[in-house]
Records
---
Amino acid sequence: MIRCFRNALVDGAGMVSLAAQCLRLTATGRVKPSLVAEQIFIIGVRSVGVTILMGLFVGATMAIQIEVQLRDFGATSFLGGLASSVSLRNVGPVLIGFLLAGKVGAYMSAEIGAMRVSDQIDALRCLGVDPIGYLVAPRFMASLVSSVVLLMIGLVMTVLGGMLMADIGLNVNYLSYIQRVQDLVSVSTLCLSVLKSLTFGAILSAIACYRGYNATGGFKGVGRAVRQTSVEALVMILLMDLLLSDLWSGWVNG
Amino acid sequence: MARRIWRRLELCIDQLYVCGVESLPIVAICVTVVSLMLVIEMSYHIKLVLNQHTLVPGFSTLMLVRELAPVVTALLLASRVGAAMAAELSVMKNSDQIDAIRLSGVDLFKYLVLPRLSAVTLSCMALTLIALVVATLGATVMASNRLGYLPSEYMNTMLAFTAKYDILICLIKAAVFGAIIATVAIRQGFKAPPGSRSVGTAATNAVVDGFIGTILADWVITYLA
Amino acid sequence: MVEFEGLKVQFGDKIIFENLSLRLKASESVIIMGPSGTGKSVCLRAIVGLVAFQSGTIRVDEIDLESEKDAEKIRAICGLIFQFPALLDSITIQENWELAVAASLMRGIKPFDIQEVLDLIALPKAILNQYSYELSLGHQKMAQMARALIGKPKYLLLDEPTTGLDPILTRSVNQLTRRLIAQVGCGVLTVTHDMKSALEIGDRFYFMEKGEWIAQGNQESILKSQHSLVRVFMEDAKIRGWAL
């Protein structure tokens, strides 16, 4: 049990340090922008469709749930605001974050892991090329940028999905839905959404790249790295979600 | 006859252990985290709309039971169990074990698919319930710290709000999600093309398709309820 | 000269080998042989600092391997060829070689250019635009070798260079190796279990079993050896048609 905790700390430190290295290399201009752009294109094209789809359905589901609860109090007019607020602040970032951890995160860790177990990373070291600068950092930056952008697209879709659901299925006119959104969704909610998007994007990129980079043991090791990425990213997203919500409400209220 | 049933049960129990028991700590922790988050967020939202605290236990518990507990459990299972199952089955397919089983006359469906399918479905339901219990305890603690509730007060309000119908929906969702995750994982494993690279792809696809299936099914069930 | 003395490598609880010593001079060809999984490849990786060692010394041309900086200096003069071709599969062969050219320039070495390398390994020009996974294993190994040669290394560490190759390609690889030793003056350390090729290119031999040298010496003494493991490898070479 203690060993488990200790390993988690070591790995966590490793992830943070890898992420920091990637950021530093990018900031000092030692990462080729064309490599990053290429990766962003690959990731984005793969994931944008699913993200939009998920966003719509998560938003729709939230609208239904909130409507049921509000109906008991006769407060259904608040539907637009409340559903959107919940989707944007919590359910949206978390569930879409999960999706991206599965798609983007798993893809990244599989790619980097495959390179690790086929000795490509060691070969680069032998040539005198820094593998982190050449292979990992562009992928980390691409993963970071893509996940953040995709997350935000997904969040917008949740609002849209809720609105469509309300209009088509729940007898709440879409105009009044939008009106309520403007009333109840505060600037601080939007800020929290953006903050969560940034954080979750960073978390899943760091975990994916670290696990991929340190994969051992042939193709079985790659599978292990991918699985670890998915699970760890989910857990960390949930924990950070709690932390951020807690800190934010404390900061805003007091 | 009895021996055959026992052997099938054995396979199922084996799978159950791997999925269910080993996933319990993570699922419990995660759902608890979600419930804590719900307490915080619900108090914020309810203040927006109704300006009082009394509805927090009800709203947050309902959201947890009807929606988030089954979904989060399912997504976690998809990542852990779904990926592993897809990888395992695609390795079996690549190393011809599946063909070997077919040739020896054993029914693939009953031997490989059914135990896994039922194990995941049952685990998903059980894990969701257990996690729910742990999570509501956690929420009670949180609420008494943050919102000044008495634990007993909180629990009573919670129970008052939660109808048997809600728990039924929760279980149905968990069962359906479990079945979807298992089906997706098994299908990805079986259709993996030869080559070691495709093992990773199969696992990743199993996770992502499991997520998508879960979210879609969630919407459908929520709509019908 | 490449040498290590008293070398011990341990992964976790498992000791791969301890107290191992070896010496390789320029223009010399040394072969490490032995059954699979005994840690032969680990020796090569340790020399260029890819694997940490727990005790002993590694020295290459007056550079003592003690830190990552030393490793970098050693890597500039030692080329390592991996058992499974470690070409980057996200870029074409030409881009792989261009990367090696750029890396050598950064190290202050004047490298071969692409055309020279292509002539050296005698592969068709068409491979330049292909990706490593589109090539056969033999061509991949040759392309990997070419990449290592771009930096004009003084020593070459080859990990099973002929494993998996057909006899024609095996002969090409062996001819290339002999040319590098004779004309360029490379010191070559080869890990292999292809006895026939080893006898073709090797001057001195080390046989490893369970982490220890169980036989050492030049071709003559090996051919006369009575050790059971060496005899097994000899038998294998006989079956493959080597006249002993």
---
Amino acid sequence: MILASLVEQLNLTVRCCGERLDQNVTGGYVGDLLSDVIAHSDRGNVWITRQSHHNIVAVAELKEHAGIIVVLGRNPEDETVRRAEEVGIPILTTELSGFEVAGKLYEFLHR
Amino acid sequence: MGYTAEYENSFPIEGGNFDEAGVVSLRVKSILKELGFPGDIQRRAAIATYESELNIISYARSGHVRLRVGPHQIRIDAEDQGPGIEDIELAMKDGYSTASDRIREMGFGAGMGLSNIKRCSDTFEITSERDKGAHLKMLIDTQ
Amino acid sequence: MKLSRLVEILEGTVITGENHLDTEVNTAFSADLMSDVLAFAKPKSLILTGLTNPQVVRTASILDSAAIVIVRGKIPPAETVKLAKELNIPIVSTKYILFETSGRLYVNGMVGCVQKIGDS
């Protein structure tokens, strides 16, 4: 599934790196504990989280995530968006919960 | 305050003792349940107490939570001995946190605590004195 | 769905709460952050999490949650299990990650608890 398609289907707000939505999504990873995300997530995953501080960009970059979806209306810090722009990681936001985003993405990937 | 407390008790909290986090809130919840308050009131009081408890454990040397139940109101005071809250307005912002990595790895420190308390209380006041401590006052109307 | 059905879907292990397997669970909240659970999880909802400390059990008790599902194959320590037994909170463990766990439940009709049951 292409990230742009997910953005459209879930009506996600694109905070940065709109030109990088052409990536293929290999799966999803839901988590808020950075060490866990680093240990277990995969390249090409969309990372679904409530964390919004700038550390998340380094993690996503390290793990080569397709993008980060910050859920439940959390607004990423300006510094987070700035760093994401620098490294080309799309930051997407939504009012939906992590469960709902994960559920829908899972459904799309398993059709 | 102008009302006669039907119940009053104070619960000490040890700074840094994460193992005990939530013990006081559960007691508060069970006391309110015994006093006959509905589930919603029990939960709100317990959530507000829990977040206060976590703040004391995370940031202070020591503190206590005091529960007072009167005919029209539940009052919860959380007072601690510690650094105090540097910037209350900033601390109230969702997502703002001064938590250490260790605290975050336990699942705490998301920066929602004060905002959760505010959401659960009908009245919420914070006072703080630098290098002395903080005092959170939470009121839940029960009429 | 009944908790017993959830255990099947997640190929889970019942850590505690064998006598609660008939409990109906219809909403779920996924998170690793305690404050988020406190802020958003509604009563009678499932908590899906990677956290295994006793505080999760206390959080679940405060919120009157239906059960806790611990993901990523983690087994909670003895003190967590003991507390869950005392407070009567079922714990199910699954090998699946939080994403897969959420997904499997979602496609089987579980809804997020910030959403009302019955909404499309």
